[in-house]
Amino acid sequence: MLMATVTPSMSTRRRRTPWTPSGDATPAPQSHPQRRGTPRQVITAKTAPCLRHGKPGHRPELMNLGDPVIISTYGAEYRGLVQYYLLAGNVSRLSRVRWAAETSMLKTLGAP
After folding, report:
1. Region 46-75: what's the mean pLDDT?
2. 1, 42, 49, 100 - which has most CB atoms within 10 Å?
3. 8 Å CB contact between 39 and 85
């Protein structure tokens, strides 16, 4: 039987991170290049129906509906937006949309 000696090759040795002038390692390549952030235009467009003069206001088209229908409408709109941009990585930017929708919903429910 033939015995072979095993020596570590370049592929099995532990590699060190390359040095950069700033002292940081080079950034790792992005594993998901298709991921994008939540666009600012989307946040502005989805916040617009809830705003009146830059502040959250009631939505007149929902005022004649029952309370459960109003709540479910706002919830479905926000939930759909969050589910769509969930893989964007920065869903926290949608907090402005949530604030505007919640405040607008409360004003719609409290409107006479």
Report:
1. 93
2. 100
3. no
What is residue 40's predicted lDDT score, i.e. its pLDDT?
87
Closest CA to 97 of 59, 53, 40: 40
What's the rounded Cα separation, in Å, for the pair 50 and 74?
Answer: 10
The two most distant CA atoms of the chain are separated, in Å, by 94
Query: What is the reported pLDDT for 39?
Result: 85
Q: Cβ distance 105 to 58 under 8 Å?
A: no
Sign of CA dihedral 64, 47, 103, 78: positive
For the chain, the domains span 51-110
Instruction: Tell me what pLDDT residue 33 has.
Output: 44
CA separation for the pair 27, 29 (Å, rounded): 6
Considering only CA atoms, which of 17, 38, 34, 19 is closest in space to residue 86? 38
